[in-house]
Amino acid sequence: MKADQSYLESAKKQFLYYKMLGEKAIDQLEPEQLFVAVNEDTNSIATIIKHISGNMLSRWTDFLTSDGEKEWRNRDAEFENDLKSKEEVLDIWNKGWNCLENALASLKPEQLSDIIYIRNEGHTVIEAINRQLAHYPYHIGQIVFYAKQLKNSEWDSLSIPKNKSGNYNAEKFAKEKEIKNFTDDELKRLK
Question: What is this structure's pTM?
Answer without folding.
Answer: 0.91
